[in-house]
Amino acid sequence: MKKIRIIISIVFLVLGMIFNGNIYLLVVSYVLVSKEVYFNAFKNIKNGEIFDENFLMIIATLGAFYIGEYPEAVLVMLLFSIGEYLSDLAVDNSKKAIVELIDLR
Q1: Which of 30, 75, 82, 89 is spaced 20 to 30 Å from 98 by Cα?
Q2: pLDDT per residue as tens digits for the range 41-72
Q3: Alpha-carbon span 84 to 87, nearest angstrom
Q4: d(C-alpha 27, C-alpha 91), whole Å
Q5: Who contacts 80 (Cβ-Cβ below 8 Å, separation ≥6)?
Q6: Rounded to an integer, what distance in angstroms lies between the CA atom of residue 71 and that of residue 23?
Q7: How many CA atoms within 13 Å lie on the side-chain side of 38?
Q8: pTM, to two decimals
């Protein structure tokens, strides 16, 4: 699901850039890719962890939107989400490898 949101967001980002920085396409791309980041940030704020990486990414991208750098805001959030996805994938692969080693023994 996360991979699909990232791919769709990339498509909207590219379309937004092709159509001369169309803000509507860029906002759609941003909303798709940042959904989980916002959810995690609000969950962490509720638990008392205010300045985590998710909250700081939101501040950075909203600042970019404020100064009119829409494609940069989307790209920063997109790259962050891709990094999180790859990190989760690596952890899952490591867990599977450890389980296979334990089963082998």
Answers
A1: 82
A2: 999 999 988 888 999 999 999 999 999 999 99
A3: 5
A4: 31
A5: 37, 57
A6: 9
A7: 8
A8: 0.85
